[in-house]
Amino acid sequence: MGSCKDQERDPQTTFVFVHGPIIVGAGPSGLAASACLSEHGVPSLILEKSDCIASLWQHRTYDRLKLHLPKRYCELPLLGFPGHFPEYPTKHQFVSYLEAYASHFSIRPNFIQNVAKAEFDPIRGFWRVQTQEFQYISRWLIVATGENAEPFVPEIVGLDKFNGLVVHSSEYKSGSDFRNQRVLVVGCGNSGMEVSLDLCRHNATPYMVVRNTVHVLPREMFGFSTFGIAMSLLKWLPLRMVDKLLLVMANLVLGNTDHLGLRRPKTGPIELKNITGKTPVLDVGALSHIKSGNIKVMASVKEITKTGAKFMDKKEEEFDSIILATGYRSTVPCWLKSEFFTKEGMPKTPFPDGWKGENGLYTVGFTRRGLLGTASEAIKIAKDIADQWRAINDLSEISVIPISSHLEKSQAT
User: Fold this and answer.
1) Mean pLDDT across 379-392
2) Distance (Å) of CA 58 to CA 255, 318, 394
3) Measuring CA to CA, which residue among 30, 24, 45 is closest to residue 409?
């Protein structure tokens, strides 16, 4: 949790025994797991490195962000969105929903608890989770930091030489800060597209770098959510057939995107998402600006210069600022000592079985299937732990191994 920088352990560490699971991360995944556990009567303790819930949504998103999917596909278990919310809630509405969710289930994370290390003690049979001042100990550990814990900044030749402003999209708030500027946007995913669109609306000139192939789909087709259409078709048809139908409909609505510099991958959008985690772009207006030339599509960057960039197609342009819409990555390998995860911080076991490891280890929010996948995993995890919890309580005793004279017992609320 947090970056991979080494963190020293305080010699005055206090030990805290947690009767229920320890959950690392107070984003939607951690909140969903805690709520589902409480529904089964199982207490839990959430450790969060920041000072608030859903810190990614609160501090690392741009102002115009809305949910890309209809709200019914983004609800957490046991409590839906307020009825008056629009079909695509804004980020502020989503954050207010999460705050109401935490309040409803009396979820009170321990904030400013940056997990430096977590490992299983095979001798004592407990997980040890180390923060700055405390070592938390529990039979169960739920990793809820998710796929997007830390901004990813790729190595780009010459980036450190650029004289202008360079920011990751996690720091971007509004195009008003870039008014009348020529801006290089590196990345053409949903963030890259929406940042470019927002720049257009504030009289900036975005140049969007398209490094790889990309699927662009309309957010809605024929009055229905594209995602909803896909989910309905998947109930009756094979995945690859659904992908083909989606692309046929997308071409009818958007036209062929290849001539715009947006070449489609050979693998269909849903299959590609399941295999690689690469999400198709759901267009909310950027494509029309690409067609009109307001957003200029550029080839891969060869080199950043002091005043601009050179591209692989031998073009060269000058820019005032650079925005890196290059996504996020998992930080799990930085702090969790377990063979359950890959070096990229994703469960080695593929969906739908990647939610449970060994020795009481669980993961939520790593399905590459958004909040719908998070909700499904949270329900499974809570039931599995609740079964163990009841079995332990049926024995009328819980074995607690003495750790030190400073051992504290805490019950998460």
Assistant:
1) 94
2) 36, 33, 42
3) 45
Q: Return the SS3 of 359.
A: coil
- Contact present, 298 and 311 (Cβ < 8 Å): yes
Amino acid (1-letter code) at residue 287: L
DSSP 73-95: GSPBTTB---TTS-SS-BHHHHH
Query: pTM for this structure?
Result: 0.89
Contact yes or no for 20/45 (Cβ under 8 A): yes
Bridge-based pairing state of the strands 321-324 and 165-168: parallel
Residue-by-residue DSSP string for 21-72: -EEE--SHHHHHHHHHHHHTT---EEE-SSSSSSHHHHHSS-TT-B-SS-GG
Helices 28-39 and 370-394 pack at an angle, to 10 degrees, of: 40
Q: Strand pairing partners for 277?
A: none
How does DSSP classify residue 293?
A: T
* 165-221 confidence digits (pLDDT tens): 999 999 999 999 999 999 999 999 999 999 999 999 999 999 999 989 999 999 999
How far apart (Å, rounded) are the C-alpha atoms in residues 119 and 246? 44
- Taking only the tens place, the pLDDT of each residue in 112-151 is 999 999 999 999 999 999 999 899 999 999 999 988 889 9
Structure-block tokens of residue 314: 């031998």
Q: How far, in Å, CA of 298 to CA of 290, rounded?
A: 11
| Cα Rg of the chain, angstroms | 23
CB 210 within 8 A of CB 188: yes
CB 185, CB 196: distance < 8 Å = yes
Burial of 52 (C-beta count, 10 Å sphere; 0-12/13-18/19+): middle
What is the C-alpha to C-alpha distance for residues 98 and 74, in angstroms, rounded to an integer? 11
Which one, of 150, 123, 153, 147, lies nearest residue 137 by Cα?
Answer: 123
